[in-house]
Amino acid sequence: MTTNAKQHTRQKRNVVVLGAGYGGLLAALRLAPHARVTLVDPADHFTERVRLHELTGTRPTVTHPLARLLHGTGIRHTAHRATALDPAARTVTTDDGHHHPYDRLVYALGSRTPDVTGEHVYTAESADRLRKRLQDRPGTLAVVGGGLTGIEMAAEIAEAHPDWTVRLLSAGQVAAGHTPRGRDHVRTVLAGLGVRVEEDRRVDDPDSLAADAVVWSAAMTPRTSLAAAAGLTLDPRTSRIAVDSTLRAIGHPEIYAVGDAAAAHSGPAGPLRMGCATALPTGFHAASAIIAEGRGRRPGTLDFRYAVQCLSLGRTEGLIQFVNADDSPRDRILTGRAAVLVKEQVVRSTVRTLRLARRAPGLLPSLPGLG
């Protein structure tokens, strides 16, 4: 080992992680033994976003206290919102006026449902408020968006609140990324739950719908306004942060972007879509790259590949669509109770991974799907 490399191993860098979602939290936990980590997120809890639709049914909560997940790690959590990023000075400013210096930054602010207006309009993020409305009195509900989020929301509501009339409106086919057999299964289950599916139905204004409640699940938008204001390059097509094969922001090698905020790509998978399936591996990879840098080694390239797409269709049905490395569907699906069990284990594994990262971060490289 060279003298410089030895010096790197003795020094702990300051790493600021923006966002305590799937990617940011895993990155922070992976880095904790190797760096002085500051986690910036205004919330005092971690939210299982893949379970938000369950809040409209019987699940009481989908959050976990950050204090418990961070206990004993040495990570400093500042419960404030990042308001400015200065790449030249390498500082992050939070809404309490404090400036947080960094040697490396992990940008993991994720994504959100675009702002939609209307007195009776809800999103996955407002599922708690939606449940109260659903319990108030029955009526008609329209879910806009035929992707995975919209399908899961429509199925959950129809099953948990059978006195409501539910429609699912999709600009194209529902479950467009699935095989014809998979899409047929989705339509069959939704029909059995009483959901009326309207395909090739584009909706631009929720107020145009004749419904007592509208759930907007049409698209997600990355939280990259902070990056744009700081001069980071955004991908012109997706508005996500442009990164290289190691997840470093183009032109700013001291900044890593992960999860939904990053326009990440890998050789086997190509461009990565938003979702928990990519947030955890990219968060792990960015942390591993920073650790490698600290040891005087060159960061490796992201080697991510898809395996399955998991879809809940209420509490008793589901669909597991097996996919190729590039997320294209294979002619193999799993349905019924078996699919429900697989989906539940996949979802539970995310929290298990975070808990393992707190207790034994050195074991993370041995987990399948992260490296």
Automatic annotation (TrEMBL):
Keyword annotations of the record: FAD, Flavoprotein, Oxidoreductase
GO molecular function annotations of the record: NAD(P)H dehydrogenase (quinone) activity
Cofactor(s) listed: FAD
Domain FAD/NAD(P)-binding: 14-265
Leader peptide range in chain numbering: none
Protein origin, superkingdom: Bacteria
InterPro entries referenced in this protein's UniProt entry, alphabetically: FAD/NAD-bd_sf, FAD/NAD-binding_dom, NADH-Q_oxidoreductase
GO biological process: aerobic electron transport chain
Sequence similarity: Belongs to the NADH dehydrogenase family.
Protein name: NADH dehydrogenase, FAD-containing subunit
